[in-house]
Amino acid sequence: MKKWRQKLSLLIILFTLSQFSFAQNSSIKGIVSDGKLPVEFVDVILKNTTDSTKVVAYSVTDATGNFSLDNLILGDYQLQFKLIGFKSFSQKIKLTSAPLSLGTITLQNDTNLLNAVVVNSQKKQIQKTDEGFVFNAVSNISQSGGTATDMLKSIPTVAVDADGGITLRGKSPMILINGKNSAITNMDQIAASSIESIEVISNPTAKYDANAESGIINIKLKKNNQSGMNGAVVLGTGFGAKGRLNSSVLLNQKTEKWNFGLRYDNRFAGRTKKIKGERTNNFIDDEHFINQNRNDERTEGLQNLKLNIDFSPNERNSFSFEALGNMESQDNDETLHTQVNTNTNQFYSNNRRHSLELERSKVGEMAFSYDRKFADDRKSLNASITSSFNKHRENTNIDTYNYDQYYTQIGDAFLQRTHNYEHENISNAIVNYAIPVAEKSIIETGYKGTFRFFNSDFQSADMTNGEYVINPLASNGFNYNEQINAVYGLLNSYLGDKENPKWKYNLGLRAEQVSNNGKTQNNSDNFSNHYLKFFPSAYLQRNLTSGEFIKIGYSKRINRPDLDELNPFIDITDALNPHGGNPYLKPEIIHIAEVSYNKEWSKYSFSTNAFYRNATNTIKQYAELQDNGVIFLQPRNIGSTITYGLETIFSLKPIGFYDANISITAFQQNINASNLAQDVVNNAFSWYGKIINNFVPWKGGKLQVIGNYNSALATPQGKRIPIYNVDMGFQQKLGKGNARLGLVVTDMFNTLESGYKNNTLLFSNNRTSKSDTRALMVTFAYTFKSDFKEKLLENQFSTE
After folding, report:
1. What is the DSSP string of 360-377?
2. Of these four, 46, 642, 727, 733, which has the most CB atoms within 10 Å of its CB?
3. Region 568-579 average pLDDT
4. Three-state SS for 21?
5. pLDDT tens profile 276-287
C-alpha cells in the first residue's frame, strides 16, 4: 500500500511538472499580411472553444506583421484576427506542441465596411523600418497651410533653419519625391497638404543612391485608392505680417481594374524679412566697420496639379501613370542700407540699394511605372521611367543711391537690370528585381540611370547715357550635363525561424559610373569629370525579442557637389557680400559606421543610433576677404571631417488622451582644414531636439504642440546661432465627422530667426535674419464618401 501511494504521488508530481513545463514553453507565432504587405495593429485574440467569452491571450501585430502569444496551456482554441478595414478572420487550432507556427495569415479588405463607418484606430505617428522610420504626415496638424519645408520642421532627427536649410546629422540629405530624383529642389514648392508621409532613411543600403552622406528624405505625395467616387475640399486662411490663403481639392474614382485621381493645391502668402549685419575688417583702415540693414517685402504664390491613373488587368500586373504640374511665383521688394566707417569710426560711405525681384518657376513631371507580382511573394519586379522639367525666370531692377554723412544724396542714382533664366531636366530609368535563391535568402539587383541637363543665362546691364548696356564682366551663361549609371546587388538573409528570425543580415555593393561636364559662355571655367566608384554596404541585426533588436552597419557614400555649388555665376545683389559657385569642387568620399538599438513596449518605444562618419574633401561654404573690403562666399573643399554622435527617438502613450514623441540628435565634429587659413574652426559640438505633444481633450478634438531647438552649428570660420520655436495646431470634427475645423499658430512666441557669427584673423562678422514666422491659420475641410476624410487631416488607417 505504501509503495502504491509513493507511485501515485510520483505520477501526480510528474504530471504536474509536465503540465507546467508545456505551459511555459507553448506559444503561437505568425505573420499577418494583406496579400502584398505586412499589416500592423491587427488585434490577435485567443479564446477557449468551451467558453468564447473568455480571452486567454491577446497580442497586436508589429510593423512587420509579426505576432506572438506565449505561455499557453495545451488545448483547443479559437484564434481571431480583427482590424477595421479588413474582414475578421478566425480559425480553430489545437495546441499539441510548442511553438506552433501558423505562417502567413492573409486578411481580405472590407470595402463595404470602409464606406460605411468612421475609422477610429490610429496609426503610429512614427513607424520604425529597417533603414530608418516613416513619419505619417497626416498626423501633423500644426503645419496645415504650410509647405514641405514647414512639415520637415516637425520630423524627428531633421533640422531646418529659419532660411529653410535642411540637414540630417549636420549635413544636407538627398531629397526624393515619391522615391525619385526630381527637378523640384525647393521644398517650398510642395504644399504640406499634399504630403502622405515622409520617410527618413538614416542608413541606406547599396540599393539607394550613394550620393546621400547623411541619409535620404523621401517625400511621398498623397494618392487615394478607395473604391467608388470620393473626395475632399479644404479651405484655409490666416495672417502673419500679411495675409495668407490656401485651398485643396481631391477627387478619385476607382473601379475593379482602374483608379483615377485628381488633386489641386494652392497657397498664397505675403511675408516680410529683416536682416541685420555687422562686420569688422581688421587690417583695412578705410572700409573698417560695415553695418547693413535690409528689409524684404515678399509675396508668394504656389499651385500644384496632380493626376494619377492606375490599371491592374489582373492580380499579378499593375501599371501606373502620374503627372504633376507646379507653378510658383515670388516677388521680392528689397531695400538694403549700408553704412561704412573707418578704423577711427569716422564716416566713409553710405548707400541705399533697392531691388525689385520677380521670379517665376514652372515644373512638369511625368512618371510611368510597372509592377509584377509572382506566386512566391518573395519574388518581385518593378520598373519606372520618370522625367521632370523646370523653367525658372528671375528679372531684377536695381537702383543704388549714395549719400554723404548728412544723408544728402550724392550724384544720380546708379541703375542696373539683371535677368537669370534657368532650364533643367532630370530623367530617371529604374529597374529592380528580387528573387529568392534559397529558403532563407533573397538577392535584390537593379539598375538606375539618372540624366540631368541644365543651362542658365545670366545677364547684367548698367544704365549708361539713358540706355542699358550689358556688362560682359558681370554676365555669363552656364551649361551642365550629367549622366549617372548605377547597378547594385544585395543579399538579404536570416538565421532561425521565418516568423521570428534570430539574425538578419544584408550584404550589398553598388557601382556608379559618373560623367559630367560644365561649360561657361566665356569658356573661363570649363570642367569635365568621369569616374567609376564602388560603394559597399553591410549590416547585421540580432533580434532579441519581438520589437527589440540590435543592429550594426557600414556603408561607403559620396557627396557630389550640386548645381548651385558648381555654377560659377557670382550673385552681386549685395555688392559687399557676393557669392558664387566653384566649378573645381571635388566630391566628398565618406565612410560611415553605425550601431542601432530598438525596443518596443505596449505604450512606449525607444530607438537609438550611434554613428561615426569620416569624410575627405569636405565641402563647406568659405568666406574670403578681398583687398577692397568685399567678402566673397564660395564653397570649398576644406579638408577632412570626422563626425560622431547619437540619435535617439522616444515615443510614449502613458494615458488615453495624450501621446508624445521626443527626439534628440547630438554630434561632435572634428575638422582638419590645413589647406585653408589657420584660423578655421577645428572642432565643435552640436545638438538639436524636438518634442511632439498630442492631446485629445474631448471627443472629436485634437490638440498638437511641437517644440524645436537647434543648438549653434559649427561652420568653417565660426558658427550658426541657435534657433528655437513652438508651433500649435488644433482640430475639431463637426457633425458626423465629414467636416473638420482647424486652427494653426506657427512660431507662437515669435522666436525663430537665423544667423551666424564668424571670427577670423582678417575679419569678424555677425548676421541675423528674422522673417514673420508667427502666423495664424484657420482651415475648414469637408469630405464625401468612404474613409478618405480620415486620411486628409487625421492620423488614421487606409487601405493603401
Report:
1. EEEEEEEEEEEEEE-SST
2. 727
3. 75
4. helix
5. 999 998 888 888
